[in-house]
Predict the 3D structure of the following.
Amino acid sequence: MKNILLMNFGGIGDEILFLPVVKSLKEEFSESEITLILEPRSASIQALSDDINHIIKCDIKAGGFKKYLNVLKLIFEVRKNKYDFVIASGSSPLVAVLCFLFGVSKRYGYKSKTSFLHTQAVELNKKQYAGNMYHDLIAPVSNKACALPQITLHANYEMPFAGEFVALHPGVSKMSVLKNMIKCPEASFWRELIEGILAKDKRVVLLGGPDDDEIISQIGNFESKNFYNLYGKTKNLQELASIISKSSAFICADSAPMHIAVALNKNIFAIFGPTDDKKLIPNADNFKVIKGAKCDEKPCLWDRRQITCESLDCLKIDPSEIISKI
């Protein structure tokens, strides 16, 4: 197997969760080249993995006729190359149809109404860590066990100080916010959390990307020699990952940076509200899950509803719970 095609649409977090698939296939077929089809917003995943040789970008979320034009372009792009097999995630019946139109002789994906178009289909088991769920897809071609996502660090971000620090990333993707999928506590929570950590004479580094401008501005700055605001000072995911790798602890919401920290096997305090932590973060002693008030509906986002509720009791968390553990 020299030429392998993979397809996984979603955000950066989804692509990080998909990395064990890439790693296992690279180990199984060491001479192969791997091409990953993904959304343009997630193209930077290639910078975090040396195992992805090529990417093909397709904006399947474009509006109107443009979406179908993009899919048509994708089909022609794939058919120009001779792939030995394709593995595609996604439970939509359109996934198997698309793989069939690619003209690849061996096609693998999840069982669906159209999975008869696959060479072999596997059961979709959503009641597990998403990395394992994706990894089930390689069963037809490999019996390798699933490991945690792994990323490759090439950047070395020079910190403006020496010594230990706690890193915080308070934001989530702008797309989640626009779709009313609230997964992050309000700015007041993060201010109180930072103040509490600084009071313990710990150094704090605040991180954020382009999607986080609103919450970062609401958090503001602190008059402390131990506070460093590095929002907007990282050029790419490699530099963000470099800072996270140097931290003694990383505090975040359910977001792509959390998955980066998992891939770096850091000490994580991950805040979970309406989403299911059992599906999104592995069970390990150094991965601490912080939850808010008990809710009979939780987890609800994606399991029971497509947007979060108005009360968001699940995100009402006492910062002292994290401060005491730090």
About this structure: The domain at 166-325 is CATH 3.40.50.2000 (Rossmann fold). The longest strand covers residues 33-38. The chain has eleven helices and twelve strands. The two ends are 48 Å apart (CA to CA).
